[in-house]
Amino acid sequence: xxxxxxxxxxxxxxxxxxxxxxxxxxxxxxxxxxxxxxxxxxxxxxxxxxxxxxxxxxxxxxxxxxxxxxxxxxxxxxxxxxxxxxxxxxxxxxxxxxxxxxxxxxxxxxxxxxxxxxxxxxxxxxxxxxxxxxxxxxxxxxxxxxxxxxxxxxxxxxxxxxxxxxxxxxxxxxxxxxxxxxxxxxxxxxxxxxxxxxxxxxxxxxxxxxxxxxxxxxxxxxxxxxxxxxxxxxxxxxxxxxxxxxxxxxxxxxxxxxxxxxxxxxxxxxxxxxxxxxxxxxxxxxxxxxxxxxxxxxxxxxxxxxxxxxxxxxxxxxxxxxxxxxxxxxxxxxxxxxxxxxxxxxxxxxxxxxxxxxxxxxxxxxxxxxxxxxxxxxxxxxxxxxxxxxxxxxxxxxxxxxxxxxxxxxxxxxxxxxxxxxxxxxxxxxxxxxxxxxxxxxxxxxxxxxxxxxxxxxxxxxxxxxxxxxxxxxxxxxxxxxxxxxxxxxxxxxxxxxxxxxxxxxxxxxxxxxxxxxxxxxxxxxxxxxxxxxxxxxxxxxxxxxxxxxxxxxxxxxxxxxxxxxxxxxxxxxxxxxxxxxxxxxxxxxxxxxxxxxxxxxxxxxxxxxxxxxxxxxxxxxxxxxxxxxxxxxxxxxxxxxxxxxxxxxxxxxxxxxxxxxxxxxxxxxxxxxxxxxxxxxxxxxxxxxxxxxxxxxxxxxxxxxxxxxxxxxxxxxxxxxxxxxxxxxxxxxxxxxxxxxxxxxxxxxxxxxxxxxxxxxxxxxxxxxxxxxxxxxxxxxxxxxxxxxxxxxxxxxxxxxxxxxxxxxxxxxxxxxxxxxxxxxxxxxxxxxxxxxxxxxxxxxxxxxxxxxxxxxxxxxxxxxxxxxxxxxxxxxxxxxxxxxxxxxxxxxxxxxxxxxxxxxxxxxxxxxxxxxxxxxxxxxxxxxxxxxx
Length: 935
Known about the structure:
Mean pLDDT: 94
Shape: globular
Number of strands: 30
Structural class: alpha+beta
Strand order of the largest sheet: 3-4-5-12-13-14-15-23-24-26
Largest sheet: 10 strands, mixed
Distance between the termini: 63 Å
Radius of gyration: 27 Å
């Protein structure tokens, strides 16, 4: 009865606090004049589904019962989704149908609410999107307001991520298998103790000079703002309802706590973001296994040549961001590699990290226990049974996302640069990113920030410039083979926990903690627990154990930004400082201070610029970055000091960079000549080609506008890479002989028509939920995996083929469930065998191939046999009905529903869900900018 009486009171409170904002006053015009906005009305942005990411328990109950949502929860989703159908006719004047205005400040008639959580800061929310515009009279007040607004909009999400960053997600959010998998995956790559987190803060302050000290002061004020909101929201009962549903707060009595934040929480949060979006390299053990498989099949010399041709570390046909011939040598193949540490065949085993499982932790399909709940809460039972976050959020190879299109003013209609760019961070409800404007002493910016790290705008615009980034993924993570030993003088085994470091037998450092959980309303996973344990060495985290030449070794992974999660804050602070960034050179100087691996893009009214950031370690001469190295002084990074994981890094001049190239594109493709790709498959066909081809044509035509560049991006976003860039070669082989089977002839004609129509995955008409050329798309989706296997497995053999598919997945179609958040994730066509098929078929057809595969595979190089291979695999694909190609899922898609299988779903991280939208392969947060003037 008490809960029933509580619900109406909470619902009434929502009328006053509909956006989750505490004690908002009557809207009023800010007294202070806004800063000068040099973009006028020519800066736009979008971040679906909406700015508001907080919902009270009453909000969640109402959503489940009546389908209502709190204001500004999904008001950007419709505009974002509409671009897939509406882009062909978009004009500069019509961009507002698909993007928000991204002006600085809020016009008096657009003020929705004004909140003053402290005397030196005001948070103004606009009517259109509910974005917080934070204006401080002091720097501390500005940062306090930023923390307060972040908690208003993303408190639950921030709390989830600070626990994930400590490997304690299950203890906080529940024991769902997805939560278990995710915290284990993260703990493998970035395990930290509390002392580690604090040491990173201390080091950043000690080495960062005045800016480092300012970062500490900013984060302290930011955390104070978060905690001020927590205190008010808890007392006022307008905190996120997920705390009630997960048992942290009693929904009847309000008993329980929301743990205050501290500065080290931000470092834990940053480690999650950095490990997912800002790292590169690694995977050397898997690379070694495929190299060994190639050498076993072909012999050492030819096997190495075959492996290198699949590795494509410096492919001459790869699309590049810098296309004027600039060379930036890094991590290439040495002429005479030394210190390579290949394991003995069959000896590699992954390092276990989970021990002492109890209860539901001991079963891959754990039991569920329904807890008692009032009637109003029963519809919310099990909302997190599938996990509060996707289980594969951090899994490789899904590190590289985001795209950018930037055109110099020499080729635009206005004479000013135009940019369309943004990060591709998956789709969540609420989003991982949040929008905000920050104005205060030394800070002037509007844009997106990761929730819980929004003391600075990370991607956005200043008064007269804009910037964005894509994941760069250059190789900053190495694998070392450390020789194991026994400190008591005995014979070491693969399980030994001591290793040789500079000739001494030293113990590994053991990092360990326990997690336990009990069922809640939200996550009914039965009670369970386990311990997570990982071993750390001077050469990084133990990932595998094996033998080399019969001796036991541990393979460790060492990332250059490990133990340096705080350092990049200085670079972001600079980007927000209008006194620092005032042109292309000062922009490049700012992003040089960011240790994570990103491609950075810049545009103002005069110039464009590009810079590749990251702590690129200087490797010892002749060390092959693509393979494991011996853990010996001769093969360490130059001047390596394991105490804080420091070394020599390549100087800024050696990082790919440019000012005022005719245009820049990036979709996680190769950066420049001789800047080696850290992963397999960066060759002749890459999704970056979809952008490069379109922007190049625009530049050649001249007169580029914001609308025309947006159309180029949007057209690429609904194009099937396989259809545009590989299907022509497939059809060329198939046309070398008559096709007598009528069914196959019809299939080839449908594929031809689809290719002629642009290889789009787009509705036949807005809202039809049916693709144009749907049967051709079904055939391609069914054919591709069969085609890859038929073309390559006979020649490579089972062992090598399997090893290479471990290095690089064969496909990443929209409906394949391999996006950054699993199925319905939007991002597609980043990783796949399209380049291999393209090069192989061109070779068999007798066409020119630069950097071709070492052997011909389709039909053993015989064109007639290749024709038969393709036709046979196509016949199998044509026979597969739609309900097998698209088998349906538990997310609401029926078997055979092609459009639904592709759709984007905002993965719920809380109690509010959103409608699905048509597939698009584009940034989650996106800016369209053109500055007509400058300071």
